[in-house]
Write a structure and sequence with these properties.
The complex is a heterodimer of chains A (264) and B (334). Chain A has 264 residues and is mostly helical. Helices cover 89% and strands 0% of the residues of chain A. The radius of gyration of chain A is 21 Å and the shape is elongated. Classes of the chains: A mainly alpha (264), B alpha/beta (334).
């Protein structure tokens, strides 16, 4: 019984300690962000890694998701003669939720884990120590370019996800319910507002901060050689999923309760 | 009064006192600080330095002076606290207790700005070179010039080429290669080139010859001596390699369980009866360094006098097998 209490206590303490460390790292990164132009080559390299490399897989997944949503929802709506509303439903779902969430999932699985593994390997190989002894700030040199790259790439990927998801839905609606693509998009535009689009992009920027901070924190705190690097990559994915969904819940409530009455 | 070793055929050059004759407090006692010789100026002053990580006491009272311009080699077994001590000297760790200064700078109370200034006076050669794999050789060596000194590209290129040539590397051929394209010895030399690119006053070497072939080991040692002679730097070297220590050291310090149990020149170290040193010199697995590591029946006997076994402290069990004892047919052993 005592060991259970001790174990739980240690787990909670460890989690709080990790959260505090990540918040400190995020604050240190944000402070250094205005000077990130000095790291432009590294930012471009990171954008290439995380943005360009993720476009195809993201397009494939969101396109398929749009099609599946059209099939499932259209099948139900057909009974009520409401297939004309498919564009509005799929458009709202993608711009508000599916676009930013899919972009976040692809980035955290594909890029977040790789970021943690790369920084973890650098940590265990003493490359981060080497930077410190050369008076090169690891946060400025390693973390800022990654966060800046994700802040640029994630909203772009989200916009692509929105567009491809809608297109997938439109194609499936045309193929299965013989509804013209123009009707699908008219339906979407009739419901969607600027808030839907911009709130999705705003969410993706927050997700970018969460993923970059967790990945860099786990990477820079890696201990224990190859096993530690593997652990850093895995925990990055798990922690990022949890915090992305938690942040999404909070932001969705904020958008519905606070922003929608004003801008909606 | 020292007693003769019990088995002259195998323990001939071991101390006359046996390990059992050294009580723990005497075995682990730190050496008293020696007076500074005339003509020497202490650069580093370390007094009663202590550091713990949680319940583990890593440094238990380090006392030493490191003189300006000397090569000070730190020997010690795995877990003895060598790297922790080196990180303190580099200003990367703060001790729990003690005094640590370099010149007039108190490293414990120094501000970040003072530490940054201090770090620009030093170069560090890491065990695995610690080159950034995503950068080319040119970018790796130039890193402090680009990121810290902000020198113009033309000057950076010239200085990198000069530094690479200084460590006997074909600069033009390897400038644009990635570290993964280089051999272990070349990577180590590139690491040394990066350490000297800012013309440091102090160079720290963290096990510079570990994992290298004997020819490259000699090359790295000669390079250390050459840099010492040409740049007049103060060098602090951590190594497991006794031959390397003898080759490059002005003084050798032996770290055991978080304290220096011996500091001196090669002759002083060889004459010291401390069991840790005896074990180091003989390459035996009998002794305080391997206490509890090896079952008695698997222990390697000490090497006969005159044959010094090359020993790796990293894993005493993997040390070379013992030489056969001399016989009338083979007077020098097999």
């Amino acid at each position: 019984m005592r060991s259970l209490v001790d174990g739980t206590g240690a787990m909670v303490t460890g989690a709080l300690e990790g959260a505090g460390r990540a918040v400190r790292l995020f604050a240190a990164t944000i402070v250094r962000l205005p000077g990130c132009w000095r790291s432009l080559p590294q930012i471009l390299r990171q954008i290439d890694v995380c943005g360009y490399g993720s476009v195809l897989v993201l397009a494939l997944i969101t396109g398929l998701t749009g099609m599946i949503m059209a099939m499932q929802t259209g099948h139900e709506l057909q009974g009520f003669g409401l297939v004309d509303n498919l564009g509005a439903i799929i458009g709202a779902t993608f711009c508000r939720e599916m676009g930013p969430i899919w972009a976040a999932v692809i980035i955290l699985a594909r890029v977040g884990s790789a970021m943690a593994a790369e920084l973890g390997t650098m940590t265990v190989n003493e490359e981060v120590d080497a930077l410190r002894v050369m008076s090169i700030d690891p946060v400025r040199y390693l973390v800022v370019p990654r966060l800046a790259a994700l802040l640029i790439a994630m909203p772009l990927l989200t916009a692509i996800a929105d567009a491809v998801g809608l297109l997938g839905g439109a194609i499936a609606t045309k193929a299965l319910f013989n509804q013209p693509i123009a009707v699908f998009f008219d339906s979407a535009w009739s419901l969607l507002t600027g808030l839907d689009f911009w709130s999705g992009l705003g969410k993706s920027a927050v997700f970018a901060c969460i993923i970059a901070t967790i990945a860099c924190d786990h990477g820079l705190e890696t201990r224990g050689g190859a096993e530690g690097v593997g652990r850093a990559a895995t925990t990055t994915v798990v922690d990022s999923v949890v915090f992305v969904l938690l942040a999404n819940l909070v932001m969705t409530a904020f958008i519905i309760k606070v922003l929608a009455p004003v801008f909606g | 009064m020292r007693r003769m070793a019990t088995n002259p055929s195998t323990d001939r050059h071991l101390p006359r006192e046996r390990v059992e004759d050294w009580p723990t407090d005497r075995l682990e006692a730190g050496v008293p600080l020696a007076p500074v010789p005339s003509g020497k100026e202490p650069l580093f002053q370390v007094r009663d330095l202590k550091k713990s990580f949680g319940p583990r006491r890593i440094l238990r009272g380090i006392d030493c002076d490191i003189y300006r311009g000397e090569t000070f080699v730190i020997l010690g077994g795995s877990g003895s606290g060598k790297t922790t001590l080196l990180k303190h000297l580099m200003g990367m760790l703060t001790p729990d207790y003690g005094v640590l200064s370099v010149g007039s700078l108190d490293l414990i109370r120094a501000s970040e700005a003072d530490l940054a200034t201090y770090r620009r006076r030093m170069g560090v050669v890491f065990q695995n070179a610690a080159l950034l794999n995503s950068l080319s050789v040119l970018e790796n060596v130039a890193l402090p010039l680009i990121e810290v000194d902000r020198r113009p590209p033309g000057e950076i290129h010239d200085r990198v080429v000069r530094a690479l040539r200084r460590v006997f590397l074909p600069a033009e051929e390897i400038l644009h290669l990635k570290p993964a394209d280089l051999s272990g010895g070349m990577r180590k030399r590139v690491g040394i080139a990066r350490a000297i690119i800012q013309d440091p006053e102090i160079i720290f070497y963290d096990e510079p010859t570990t994992g290298l072939d004997p020819v490259t080991v000699n090359g790295v040692n000669e390079l250390t001596l050459e840099l010492q002679a040409s740049m007049g730097v103060t060098s602090v070297v951590i190594t497991h390699d006794l031959d390397a220590a003898y080759m490059i050291a002005d003084r050798i310090a032996v770290l055991y369980k978080g304290r220096f149990v011996a500091i001196g020149t090669q002759a002083e170290i060889e004459a010291n009866p401390h069991p840790v040193l005896r074990q180091l010199l003989s390459g035996s697995t009998r002794g305080p360094l391997t206490e509890g590591y090896v079952e008695d029946e698997h222990r390697i006997p000490p090497t006969p006098k005159g044959i010094r076994r090359k020993t790796s402290w990293a894993d005493p069990i993997l040390a070379d097998p013992p030489a056969d004892p001399p016989t009338p047919e083979a007077p020098h052993g097999q």
